Amino acid sequence: MTNKYMYFIANWKMFGDSKTLKSLGNVIKFVKENKNKKFKIIYCPPSTLITSMSKSFAKSAIQIGGQNCHYEKNYGAYTGSINAKMLKDAGAKYVILGHSENRQNGEDDELINLKAKNSINEGLNIILCIGETFKEKKNKKTFSVLSKQLKIGLKNIKNKKKIIIAYEPVWSIGTGVIPNNEDLFKTIKFIKKKIKYLSNSVLYGGSVNNKNINELKKIKNLDGFLIGGASQDVKKFIDIIQKTYN
Ligand code: PGA
Questions:
Q1: pLDDT at residue number 198
Q2: Axis crossing angle, helix 181-195 with helix 142-153, rounded to the nearest 10
Q3: By the number of CB atoms within 10 A of the CB, which of 34, 39, 91, 118 ranks highest?
Q4: How far is CA 230 from its chain centroid?
Q5: Is residue 162 domain-resident?
């Protein structure tokens, strides 16, 4: 871990309902009791919970993010979609873009770039997910894939301060398999060199849990974690944060 603020971002995916919110009291308490630690916690629930979560976290340092949004700036006839303006209005300060689960459903780098530009113009911070598939890794294409995702995804974005990168190898999402520390260090170093703006935080995501965090936290250039499955359980999520600092 670096000496910057460490991010712990909870990506709830399509999980969670009003009952789940009750468990959040523990994380609010935890954050209050650990004010002296340099971390930022961001919850990215499904859109249905953004407003109620914002209310739950109103007096806490915990912030909210959306999991995706439409590229269109204005309101429009896009059934089932929400845009950055709506996310902001509901209480979000961040939005995850380019998650591989959405890339697999047809989102390409150009579309992700439109979303990124519009989200930043609306004042949101973006968490841009990039990562290679197992086949690309096997064919030694990791760096070229990441370069392309960064180059097109971040094209013509002037306000660089609002960008966080999450390196999420597709083969480690939800599989329990994580890259080894040496590979991860090299990949994060490569990403940081590519984006050139050293102040941007680069996170790792993919099967992070309260067991492998003891290894992952040793990686010196990582600025935090994007956590899926393990973030849905408040105890496990808090455990991950605590272990990072122990
Ligand atoms: P996981 O998901 O932690 O369940 O692997 C991470 C993600 O998809 O962001």
A1: 60
A2: 30
A3: 118
A4: 14
A5: yes
